Amino acid sequence: MSRKISLVLGTILCLAMSGLANAQGMDGRHAMGRAGMGCQPPMVGAFHDSHMGRWWNDPHMAQQLNVTAEQKQKMDAIFQQHKLNLIDLVAALEKQQVLLGPMISSDSPNETEVLAQIDKIAQARANLEKANARMLFDIRKTLTVEQWQKLKALHRQHMMRDMRRDRRMWK
């Protein structure tokens, strides 16, 4: 199974299992990691493929899940509906992070200002996470129960393979 498929599987499974709380943002080009998030969760990587985030248009993935043309159209529409808002939210997060830089770099940082700016960053990040989670949940709702079950099974298989690979790497 390709890395792209595994990222998609991990993304959707994590979203559903976490009650949407661990969803991270994207905008088709930028990821939360670019906005200073550090370690990127699988959700971010799932949207960086040759289809600009439309994993359901990947022939191999669509075939494995039996994604119909109607489902693809619905997912494309959902993606497009959310994309512009996500771009704006990524930009808002980056802006707040840029504003923090000089505050921290100052020889005499003002703790009140720094903490207030950190709160603004946290709020911008939360807004982005919620908007992305809404989009991913809307996309997830287009899948049938059978497709969802298949996706979870593929994810488990991939996770087991990754665990075996990681164990071999650390020996």
Estimate percent helicity: 55-70%
Structural class, please? mainly alpha
Proportion of strand residues: under 5%
So what's the oligomer here? single chain
Average pLDDT confidence is 77
Which of globular, elongated, flat, extended, rod-shaped describes the shape? flat
Spatial separation of the terminal alpha carbons: 24 Å
Largest sheet: none
Radius of gyration from the alpha-carbon trace, in angstroms: 18 Å
**How many helical stretches?**
6
What is the element string, with H for helices and E for strands? HHHHHH
User: What's the total count of β strands?
Assistant: 0
Low-confidence stretches: 5-51
General description of the model:
The longest helix is centred in the middle third of the chain and has 37 residues, at 69-105. This protein is an all-alpha fold. Helix content is 70%, strand content 0%. The two termini are 24 Å apart.
Chart the SSEs and their pairings:
Layout: H1 3-17, H2 42-46, H3 59-65, H4 69-105, H5 111-140, H6 145-169
Task: State the main characteristics.
flat; 171 residues; mainly alpha
Task: State the gist of this model.
The chain is an all-alpha fold. The protein has helices spanning 3-17, 42-46, 59-65, 69-105, 111-140, 145-169.
